[in-house]
Design a protein that fits this description.
Helix 1 (about 15-30) packs antiparallel against helix 2, helix 2 packs antiparallel against helix 4 (about 105-110) and helix 5 crosses helix 6. This protein has helices at about 15-30, 35-55, 90, 105-110, 185-200, 205-215, 310-320, and strands at about 5-10, 60-70, 70-80, 115-120, 125-135, 145-155, 165-170, 175-180, 225-230, 235-245, 245-250, 255-260, 275-280, 285-290, 330-335. It has a five-stranded antiparallel sheet, with helices on both faces. A five-stranded antiparallel sheet has the order 6-15-14-11-12, with helices on one face. Strands 7-8-9-10-13 form a five-stranded antiparallel sheet. About 25% of the residues lie in helices and about 35% in strands. The chain has two domains: about 5-135, Histidine kinase-like ATPase, C-terminal domain (Heat Shock Protein 90); about 145-335, Phosphatase 2c, domain 1.
Amino acid sequence: MDNTVLLSYKIDDRSYVSFIKREIHNLVTGAGFSPQKVGEVDIVVSEITSNLIKFAETGELLYRLAVDEKGSFFELYCLDKGKGIRNLSRMMQDGISSTDTLGQGLGAIERLSNASSVFTLPDWGTVIYSKIYQKEATTVEKQGAINFGSVQVCCPGETVCGDGYSVKKIGKGLQFFMGDGLGHGINAHEAVTEAIAAFNDCRETSPVQVLRHIHENVKKTRGLVVTIAYLDFTSQKWLLCGVGNISALLYTGLMAKNYTPYNGIVGHNIPRTLNDSVLDLQRYQTLIMHSDGLRTRWNLADLPGILKYEPNMIASALYKDNARHNDDMTVFVAKINI
């Protein structure tokens, strides 16, 4: 997974729109997007910001350039706390508008994006997502057996993130890492970067053993908090172990099991006795892990229908409601589709 952080821009006045449109135009132009692709990005950004100002007045844009197995792409989230879209399926049709405009906004976004999505609730607001590849994708986006998604934003004023996440295949399953370097800035970033490198090198399947390996390899850093989850397809079990205040919840439907980590700091002091917590793997589960840059008192039951969406939309909705904006902020979501 690409750990490139999302840039954040809060829009609370119409005068900011032209600035952010120019910033994104220059970003994708400098990245080598063709004039046609730059034009498509311009239209999507224009439609999203126009709708934001008209219907919600204020909101937050998250955007980045990143790379996946299909190539380089630009992606954008628009988050607002407005009145929501009352009839989403109707508003997705070209020519439909609740004002006197041409009504091409949501339809144009969907048409010009390689992937797009909209989640909205009355009086909660709206999340709009768009992903546009630098070159035309040769394959259609398909839902796998396990899909991952995340939202990661630096502490305001910082250029690097002290949070990090990683996924690797090992044994007969998948292993997930979520870490948060103490504080924020370059030293926190160094700690989590070293921890991810140790995680990727470790060949143990037990989260306890992975944590001990990371602990030995980050002692020269500031230290961090870490939670490891291992999904074992053979035993049909989840194994979890964490040290410090990473939040980890496993949802089965709307029923959540909250994992409680051990006290300590990886790289400085961890308990002598650590044990893996074992949970049953069930169909259509969702693992959610996030750093303390987000508030912890949330419940997916407050977001009806969100579990039907891709992991990145779940992550962005949780970020919208719970981001503290005084620390690095990361939400990672793994969704089981079988």
